[in-house]
Design goal:
The structure is a homodimer of 111-residue chains. By secondary structure, the first copy, chain A, is mainly alpha-helical. In chain A, 67% of the residues lie in helices and 0% in strands. Chain A has helices at residues 4-12, 19-49, 54-60, 65-72, 80-89, 94-102. Chain B binds a DNA duplex (30 and 30 nucleotides) through α1, α3 and α4.
DNA sequence: CGAGCATATATCAAACTCGACATATTCGCT
DNA sequence: AGCGAATATGTCGAGTTTGATATATGCTCG
């Protein structure tokens, strides 16, 4: 199910193969995915810091346990909107959300 | 159409009126809206700096002029995903997006 | 081992967002 | 004022995201 990306590209009419455009888009997508990962990670940390179970958090944000699991797994079908909304529900401020978005998820690549 | 918010609340089962919960939620929603406004504003600035029309930008991101207009108007039906993706398409880095999100939109309130 | 609880994965109908198009409205220019 | 380009607003079908539900896996403690 992680082909949502590819599908989106195709639907958007990008010819995967056109060098410049493709590279550009890759960068965007990569940035987007990294942002999601960072947000997901932050949600998990905050939830645990508050000693909440996924089910409890789900109730707080008007959702279900299964979705919280997907949120924390940064499942491709989870939107940034939901990630951010969840983080805000956990008491994060706008500034803190910004910091999370700027933060590097892993830290391995050099090139 | 700006009742999407209200609808979401209702669907989520929030009784608008419950003091604590209501205030909490308001803060979240306010933060979300402010983030959207900041992002929308940044999109417009960047587009203009590049001397692009909405139609041209639309083409670049595989969308239509009307949607770009909605993006810049921070229309409630525009998701954060789209705002961020558009900003990235305009050459913004992840760090820059973060800065935009942290930035205050207006600057009037004191309390 | 077995029970109880937390988390992960799958499915589905309903709600939502998207791009496209048609149609205003506003802006810049002569 | 009159024209044309740019931008705003409304609607719609198609495709995506969501919350609920069911089920599976994993974990701890007796």
């Amino acid at each position: 199910m992680k082909k949502a990306k590819q599908k989106r590209l195709e639907r958007a009419g990008w010819k995967v193969g056109g060098a410049t455009d493709f590279l550009e888009l890759s960068k965007e997508e990569a940035a987007l995915v990294e942002m999601k990962l960072a947000l997901a990670d932050s949600v998990r940390r905050r939830r645990r810091a508050r000693k909440l179970t996924q089910a409890q958090l789900a109730k707080r944000i008007g959702s279900s346990q299964s979705r919280v699991a997907k949120i924390e797994a940064a499942d491709p079908e989870v939107s940034i909107d939901l990630l951010v909304r969840t983080l805000l529900s956990l008491g994060a401020s706008r500034t803190q959300v910004a910091k999370v978005i700027a933060k590097r998820t892993g830290s391995k690549e050099a090139a």
